[in-house]
Design goal:
The complex is a heterodimer of chains A (189) and B (447). Chain A is mostly helical and 189 residues long. The termini of chain A are far apart. Chain A folds into 2 domains: 89 residues, RNA polymerase sigma factor, region 2, helix turn helix motif (Rna Polymerase Sigma Factor, Chain: A, Orthogonal Bundle); 77 residues, Winged helix-like DNA-binding domain superfamily/Winged helix DNA-binding domain (Arc Repressor Mutant, subunit A, Orthogonal Bundle), CATH 1.10.10. Chain A contains 8 helices and no strands. The radius of gyration of chain A is 18 Å and the shape is elongated. Chain A is 70% helix and 0% strand. Chain B is α+β, with helices and mostly antiparallel strands. The chains are: A mainly alpha (189), B alpha+beta (447). The interface between A and B is large, with 72 and 58 residues.
Chain lengths: 189, 447
Amino acid sequence: MSADDQRLIAECLQGNTTAFGVLVRRYQERLYNSVYRLVENAEDAQDVVQEAFLNAYQSLDSFKGDAQFFTWLYRIAVNTAISLKRKRRAMVRMETGCNGEQNIEPHDRSVESQPGYAMEQAEQEARVHHALSRLSPEHRAVLIMKDMEGQKYETMAEILQVPIGTIRSRLHRARLELRELLEKSEEEG
Amino acid sequence: MLLDRYRQLLTAYVDGELTNRQRRHVARLLRRSEEARQLLQKLQADAHALRHLPRPALPTDLTAPVLRTIVERRLAPGQRRIANASSSALWVGPLASWAAAAAVLLILGAASYLYFAASLVQPEKKEMVEKTPAPPPSAPKSGALDASIAKEEKSHVATRERPAPKLERPVGVNPTKVVKHPGEKPKTSAPASPFAPQKPETALTERVELFHLDRVADLLPVIVKVSALEQEAQRKKLVAELRKNSNFRVELPCPNGTKAMERVQSAARTLHFSLVIDKQAQERIKLKWRTNYVLYVENITPQELTQFVRHIGVEDRKSASKKPTEAQIDRLVLTRMTAQHRKELSTLLGIDPTTTAPAATGLLGTDLRKPISELTAQQVGKALAGKGDTPRPQAGKPAAKPPKNVALVLPYNPVRPSPGSDEIKRFLEGRKPTVPGTIRVLLVLRS
């Protein structure tokens, strides 16, 4: 864990909530990115991230510092997000891009010089997004952590509190299931 | 259609978490199978697509709302406990589920027994009891608790320092008495284990002394994350737990017992523990057969055991640092040795060492039960051959001290044990009288 995070946590434990504000500002974006993919809804994602920070604040004294602060925070957020998804019916909501889109970062347009490229890209993204949304929360979580966050099996096992073997098998099933969904989607055109 | 184990290899390849050997296997598979090549290409494309999905930007800064909520709700650190990587309180795994189920069954059984026993008592004997003197420590405990645990307590109190429980209600109270404490909150008895779940306090106007929740909590296994033992606070907690009894069973679940055994051997070398390894176990270790193992050690202090387990974890992390898939040891499950465990130990060793005293030995460590001449001859022969327990001192150098801790290592096979091996005999012959403040431990490495 970085020395700066350690210092901020120590200050929080002494009652300095401003120090916690620094931590929120530091990690909220990254946390939101992952949680959004889990819950697929901007409002829910904000709620989950906010809830995760509040839970983390209340549990700060139990954070022992043997893992990265973000990993610990991420675990709280992932568990909250998975619980939320289980409770609610999965809804596929597309945050479609359009002019003035505020919640999706713009692509790097330098490669989009071929005619129809933008359309193809958008269609491909939509297919992947749709397929991802149809996975179970547990499968979606491991794929997001692995491919979008670049986490190792060991970190993922720590976050989800399951053995490494479970992570390996979940990822295996998740990848095959995603492949199957994408193939069906390609066949349907 | 590709076999599932090949598909697993390919998905693990996409994950980037293969060993060199597995990567070579994948390379061979790809060379010979067009189907494997196509599937890998598609899986890699899917992973690429996921990595390049647009990253949603956070619409609003959440700092102010979070801080405002903290102030409004008067939140403070320490209000909520969440199991984190280093907490030893929670482990959502099959062992914890089984332990919880076992505890529920035990409580139900105890409650049923006491309920039916209470129904036989005449009404006039149900009266208010304020205080009754606590029975002496040697008195047998009532209730449906394991009688062997009660016997263990009896001998345990004499040798161990244990804080006297503060009781408003008596320890061995007759379960048929109804205690009326109008509006009074019941008080907890013995200090709670740092690992035990919290007991809710309720204010009851009438309660029946059915059983002792603190004793039930004491029977539950304690699960500790091995890496947490790097912290002194966690080590102290484990030592405190180990001081509560003198016989324990420690289980280290691991995917591959033989690899875990390698970590144990390295830790033993670091701490100068001596391992007496049964011949069958030696063969299995040498051939790297996947086997479960058990270690039995006596006269080890709680601190020494904690350090030993800690070093096993250190060795495991060293091996896993280059290959994460090589990690073997994650948690330890600590339980007091029950009658069932002692029976298992007897099966493995041929005797129950917890009830069989070591051989009486004289000043020279000789077994006084054997004819002196025979034993002396053996020992003299060994000493001359340099194979005695104490190494021959080299000229000009002080004699090496024998290792303080000696552990017997066996393949863990309680179904088909082989208790007659030379190593087991040698270990049993070398046993020493119990040293106060030490414990006996059965350490099991199994998948």
